[in-house]
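Thread: Modeling a multi-component assembly for a lab meeting

Hi all, long-time lurker, first post. My supervisor asked me to bring a structural picture of a complex we are working on to next week's group meeting, and I have zero experience with this. I have the sequence lines for every component (812 residues in total). Could someone generate the structure of the whole assembly? Inputs are pasted exactly as I received them:
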Amino acid sequence: MQGNRLPAHGALSGVRIADFTWLAAGPYGTQLLSFLGAEVIRFESRKRMDSYRRTSTTPGVEGRSRSLLFNDVNLNKMSVTVDLSTPEGIALALDVVRVSDVVADNFSPGVMQRLGLGYDRLRRVRPDIIVIASSSCGSDGPESRSVGYAPTFSALAGWGHLMGFPDMPPAESGRNTDLRVGAASAFALLAALNYRASTGRGQSIDLSAREALTCSIGDMLLESQMTGRTPMRQANRTPGLAPHGVYRCKGEDAWVTIAVGSDEEWAALCAATGHPDWRDDSRFLDVYERCRHQDELDSLMAEWTLPHTPAEASDLLQKAGVAAMPCLSNRDLLQDRHLRFRGSFSDIEHSQLGPITVMGAPWKFSDTPVRTPAPSPLVGQHTGWALADLLGRRPEEIARLTEANILY
Amino acid sequence: MGAEAHAALPGVRVLEYGQLVAAPYASKLLADLGADVIKVEDPDGDPARKHGPFPDDRPDPEYSGLFMYLNANKSSVTLNMGSVEGRRLFTELAARSDVLIEDTPPSQLASWGLDFAMLKGRNPRLVIVSITPFGQTGPYAHYKAHALTTFHAGGEGMLLPNGADYMTRPPVSLPGFAHDYDCGLAAALAGLAALYHARATGHGQHVDISKQEAGMAFTRQEISDFVATGEVSNRANALSYHRGVVPCKDGYVTVHFINDKEWQVFAEMMGNPAWAKSDKFKDVASRQENAVEMMRGVAAWTLQYTKLDIYSRAQAIHSPTGIHLTPEELLTSPQYVARGFFVDVTDPSGRAWRVPRGPCEFSETPFAVRRPAPRLGEHNHEVLCGQLGASPEELTGLRQTGVV
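Re: Modeling a multi-component assembly
Sure thing. I ran the full set together rather than chain by chain. Output:
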């Protein structure tokens, strides 16, 4: 099945990305830009297939174009199969780079250089190219070769120590954190695109997943410097707010969040829960007292939430002006009326997977709406388009390259 | 502009009306790339000034670590948005800006007569990025919220602690303000995309950032899982045979044995003890079945060593083993130090504090701290008189009437 390019669209209309990324973090970063209208040409090879292609989560469904996980982070993209271990394959990749604005990869540091696709080479081909290399610890430094998965680099970024229950070992984050790193790379590329728009100059960007995560706990690094104390994981608590927790409700693994900032919110909560007596309880008179007696407060809250479903509890509290929400699972999100109203999910048709639902982009633009998700490409679906239309190669040459397993 | 010659966003004017973390982090990312950010604060200041941490635990609104980290490089102007004149000055500032980043509840600006159409009418190039708990539209748009509630409404909480071996305790939050930082990054990203478009076309626009959706974005793979299997993802079904947190002599280690090779390499590091060679652990399936026993054996070994010891030995043989670093350890991490990841922000007494430079390294346009975080209203004169042309006398009048 031959693919064509998507119509020009959005804020990044006219921006082309030569995408050498794989797994989750890299592909998600370029996918975010594809939602904004960038044209993303994904380089793949049957010789060294993205493991995500092989991760079929659909029971009984096999095949490299049938992975929902792969689909999920490669929407709106094109796939070109080129064997990058051959000089001719590299030459083709460089020809695409010549007509591209951005090159992205998330191989281990050094791989692009060994392939002959290092920044200096790319810059000779396209002087204003913007290149981003994303890796777990960055391209230099004593730990640049460090190997690991999302839980590994989030532990090394200091997240684990600060996440979870204070009386338990550090908590780990999952593959969600790969996507967080992808968001950081999309941001970095947009900064570089703006710089290029005003100066005509490209540059290279070195993104360390660890560093991207540690930025989000910068204030806790200051706490340790300023107070001499080591900040500790707090589960769901935060200074200055109480109650501030996640409470069990009626139902299987059913929970509701409740967060009270001011005395007015506290008064509203007491009224809404039918406990006007709590207002006069000396343990809960003001924020300071509520924080001091948080364990007792949490027990009372949990007693109140337990007979309610999360939706009942949060509706009651929201009506009174208290911040509360159910903890939503993946199933709940798909059914959530607010998210449905906002069009957060799209039903799409994938030629191999059939009709499926995917999440859209996490922002709304008034004048350049984000792209409605288009299915991920089949393996090599756009090789013909890239060779013939983008690079202007003759049919006989394409046949020769195919025959020689360069386009493979 | 000499110092900004190699900034990514020189001459870009950003107006921020934001509090605490999300909106201030969005404009911080732009400020550190060279944008001129004017931060409008209510007369009693951004609540981050009260939040701390404070040097030696002495609260002082000019010494809040959170505030200094998020607001270095910015100018501070105080405006009472409850006053007609305060709103007029705000409109003037917006008319001179490329990007406005704000976090007021939906319809708050409109109720002040500062609706998006009016602001855009005054300045067609203006990009407005609004950050709210649930977005500008929809049934929850006006819900009361705190970061805790929007985070857990985004789905990731149900997956944390990821790989927990219990369901008795509640889902947990990300570290500290991490959810707010995520939202700030989403806003900065979207703002830069709209700015890119405005440069090319002269047309600004309004970008709607919902904190729930910004957090939910990271659970898209679990959405696909549900589509595939119809199963609800939770923190315990992410538990698997191939990973875990184990204690060591001075903290915690995270280990992964996703395939046979990773297990064999780790077993070799442990000196190939007899138990590890048992058939109980010979392949993925048997390791899953005997995971508890396996992890007990691994912990018995790791407990003899320090984290750094284990980390360097494991990584030398390409075992995907990590260690849980504390804030102190991060500050002296050889990797971070070698890469120059920490930069200084100085407090009003001139004392320097170490903060992350930013989420990546740019070859041409590095993130840079050019000046410390502003004191409350430090730039009232410079901005209101210097840029908007108010006379010093008028400024005095504005002060006396509580506008600034």
